[in-house]
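Title: Request for sanity check on Ribosome maturation factor RimP prediction

Description:
We are preparing a figure and want to confirm that the structure record we downloaded matches what your pipeline produces today. Could someone re-run it with the sequence below and paste the raw structure tokens into this thread? We only need the token string, no images.
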Amino acid sequence: MEREEIIKKVWELAEPVIISLGLELVDVEFQRERQGWVLRLYIDRPGGVNVGDCVRVSEVLSDLLDAKDFIHHAYHLEVSSPGVDRPLKKKEDFSRFAGDKVKIQMSEPIEGRRNFTGLLRGYEGEDVLVEIDGKVWRLPYGKIKKANIKYEFDV
């Protein structure tokens, strides 16, 4: 089974469980790292998650993944918060986090640029709206390679 298939299957298996615990599945990664294969899930909820939430999800999913047994090599399971630079994956994320500063990388250039950092204005039609220096850019959702909240610390 290929990496993308494993991610899709984990997402389908994990999301209902995580929702039933009052949490949101933000992202799933499956990649080879120095210590071996790592299956990493990011969870969240309004107000954030704590270590107890991560432990609870890890325990439930570990048993479920062992029972389903579709990952045919050794891996480490990690469950954590998405952090302050939370990825934006779902269309709903772009409406929910309107008003926050974001960094978006496109798979194809728009007017000669691939990277956009500005104020998220929401989601309209099939476009993500980002305001940069007073101009609102319409970025096609289907061409977004990566998008994250860009948290700025007050100093």
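Thanks, this matches our download. The chain is about 25% helix and 40% strand.
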